[in-house]
Structure to design on (462 residues):
């Protein structure tokens, strides 16, 4: 395939499907391989890749791409494009490698969006080296997938050998392979020391500027959502998610200002027990992510037995629901006290956080003496008096809102943003309540009987 330009628009699903389609039996086999690969990611191999592909609503077999690509289509969605002939030719092991590779690319675009990095071909090669190194370690491989006996992609050890030869010829010391590939930054930094850094042509579209359509807004939305959900899974005790996220954090944190900021915003430093003292993330935000993770925890996710999944895949049944598990949507109520002054950035941050958590249905309420539903972003008007009991009466189904609508859900968690000044209450299910108390407020739920989850929010300049 020519390297400049595509035969069809890579975001046009119909055109992609219609472009010289592969025979139906090849498409069917490729689809089975893809499903089996995604199932394995969810069960044992990559929480990050599993989350990412769960978010690719359209997964399109097309011969318009040579291998595979995750495309951010500009309308807010991500597409997975894969060449069915290629998938069948490289087999399940190859498909997993390629899908892991593509998932990682999207996160790289999220973490490293700096135009000067993106424009640098050495950086693009370094990214390939890093991604393929991680893929081999994570998937337990000793080499790249083979297509007709030829390795597919950039071989990290091959690049390292060229690097050693180049530096030796310059009379410079070269790093051994483990140090060379230790972080994404180390690969890039060391390649820049070469007289003649590699800029090889190969099959991955990511080596070409503009090779894969990916608007940064969609990439960032999906990327941050994938990282947040992986973090929540890690905090709920999923060892796979925790190991993978820590590894990604260690590889990329500090590599660029943006990457450091993104990890800081996520509060992921808490995972490795360092406070990240210089970060702008407040403790209450980390605390809330933790508490929400425990309140919204599943127990039922990924209970799908692997053997049965593999059997279904072998029988040609798409194991569609299996990688997510039979998960009930969690109901989260956020109640916002309009009698005091609630800093806008706290509400904004909370809105964004809640919006990125998968499988959660959020109900937003404002309250003073009465309860009113609102949409985040809408202006809310405070009235007289404050009543926590009004919130409890509403979410426990006893009283409708001022608009006359009753609450019919059973919430899994209730977050209350307030200054705390109103008569104390004991809700029916106090273990579900999370109180965020503004500066100067009264944190009575912390020493109430029974005690409830409670934290002060810092609302200083931000
Ligand atoms: Zn690539």
């Amino acid at each position: 395939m020519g390297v400049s330009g595509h035969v069809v628009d890579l975001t046009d699903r119909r055109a992609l499907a219609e472009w010289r389609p592969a025979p139906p039996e090849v498409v069917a086999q490729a689809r089975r391989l893809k499903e089996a690969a995604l199932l394995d990611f969810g069960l044992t191999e990559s929480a990050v890749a599993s989350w990412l592909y769960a978010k690719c609503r359209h997964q399109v077999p097309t011969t318009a791409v040579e291998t595979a690509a995750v495309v951010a289509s500009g309308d807010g969605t991500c597409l997975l494009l894969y060449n069915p002939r290629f998938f069948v030719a490289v087999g399940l092991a190859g498909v997993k490698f390629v899908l892991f590779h593509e998932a990682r690319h999207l996160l790289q675009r999220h973490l490293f969006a700096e135009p000067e990095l993106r424009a640098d071909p050495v950086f693009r090669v370094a990214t390939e080296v890093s991604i393929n190194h991680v893929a081999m370690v994570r998937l337990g491989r000793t080499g790249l997938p083979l297509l007709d006996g030829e390795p597919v992609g950039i071989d990290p050890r091959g690049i390292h050998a060229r690097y050693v030869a180049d530096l030796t010829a310059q009379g410079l010391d070269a790093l051994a392979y483990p140090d060379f590939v230790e972080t994404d930054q180390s690969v890039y930094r060391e390649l820049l020391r070469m007289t003649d850094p590699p800029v090889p042509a190969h099959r991955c579209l990511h080596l070409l500027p503009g090779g894969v359509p990916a608007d940064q807004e969609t990439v960032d939305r999906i990327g941050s959502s994938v990282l947040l959900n992986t973090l929540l899974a890690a905090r709920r005790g999923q060892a796979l998610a925790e190991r993978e996220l820590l590894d990604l954090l260690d590889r990329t944190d500090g590599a660029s200002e943006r990457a450091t900021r993104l990890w800081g915003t996520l509060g992921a430093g808490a995972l490795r027990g360092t406070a990240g003292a210089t970060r702008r993330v407040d403790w209450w935000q980390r605390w809330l992510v933790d508490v929400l993770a425990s309140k919204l925890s599943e127990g039922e996710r990924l209970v799908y037995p692997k053997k049965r999944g593999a059997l279904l895949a072998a029988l040609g049944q798409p194991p569609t629901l299996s990688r997510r598990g039979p998960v009930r949507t969690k109901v989260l109520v956020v109640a916002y006290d309009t009698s005091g002054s609630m800093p806008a950035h706290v509400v904004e941050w909370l809105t964004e956080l809640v919006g990125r958590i998968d499988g959660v249905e959020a109900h937003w309420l404002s309250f003073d003496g009465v309860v009113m539903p609102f949409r985040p972003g809408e202006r809310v008007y405070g009235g007289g008096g404050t009543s926590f009991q009004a919130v409890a009466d509403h979410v426990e189904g006893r009283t409708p809102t001022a608009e006359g609508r009753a609450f019919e859900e059973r919430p899994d968690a209730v977050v209350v943003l307030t200054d705390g000044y109103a008569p104390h209450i004991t809700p029916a299910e106090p273990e579900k309540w999370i109180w965020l108390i503004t500066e100067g407020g009264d944190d009575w739920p912390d020493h109430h009987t029974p005690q409830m989850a409670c934290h002060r929010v810092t609302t200083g300049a931000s």
The chain has two domains: 1-262, 328-456.
